[in-house]
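User: I'm preparing a small set of examples for a lab meeting where we compare how different chains pack in three dimensions. I only have the primary sequence for this one, and I'd like the structure in token form so I can line it up with the others. Please keep the answer compact; I'll paste it straight into my notes.
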Amino acid sequence: MPKLFFGISLGPGKIKVPRIDAASLKQLLERESVLLFDVKDEDQWLVSREMIRGAKRRDPKRVAEWGKMLASGSEIVLYCSADGEAISARVAEKLLKMGFSHVSVLHGGWLAWKRERFPTSKRTSSGLL
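Assistant: Understood. Below is the structure token output for the 129-residue chain.
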């Protein structure tokens, strides 16, 4: 069972977004079907040469658009490289408000994954959806 814990609130009236640690995410990816999305901002995406193996790139500014294409019961994990997982948390909050119930954010984001030396792959050329 993955270790989920709740992160900081995003402000008054905001939803608390569950976090998952890097080791638990690695285990989850090895045994379950999870939608893993890289939602780094455009600047970070352009300078990044890698992403978590199996992740798909999604534009955090277009979540309302690409979120409609996901099955409602999907298990979704998001990561970014912003301090405090700020971008991932905002995207997760939007997905939760859209009715998704299995959404979490990688605690520590991209840097936590890299620090553990877990599997990565070269990023796709654009991948922006």
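A couple of notes for your slides: The CA atoms of residues 58 and 129 lie 5 Å apart. The helical segments are 22-31, 42-47, 63-67, 86-97, 109-115.

User: Perfect, thanks.
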